[in-house]
Write a structure and sequence with these properties.
mainly beta; 1 helix; 75 residues; four-stranded antiparallel sheet
Length: 75
């Protein structure tokens, strides 16, 4: 069985931002029994925080990824 990992992100919505601020906060590892171990490098304690788990990308995937356009600044 290959090791499966997921990236953990904290998403914090801020006034004026449509998509929120994403911060990578840790990694999740799949156990043999199907459960997950979550290892947090950082865990912000904010009431509006959403934690999201996504498939981890390889270094090669990250190198070829196109950056998303930043949302327009609000005035």
């Amino acid at each position: 069985m290959t090791t499966q990992t997921q990236a953990l992100f904290g998403i914090l919505k801020r006034d004026g931002l449509e998509r929120g601020i994403w911060t990578r906060i840790g990694t999740a590892f799949l156990n043999r029994d199907g459960s997950w171990n979550l290892r947090f490098d950082y865990f912000p304690a904010h009431g509006d925080l959403t934690v999201q788990m996504r498939p981890a990308k390889s270094a090669e995937d990250r190198a070829t990824e196109q950056p998303e356009a930043a949302p327009p600044a609000s005035r």
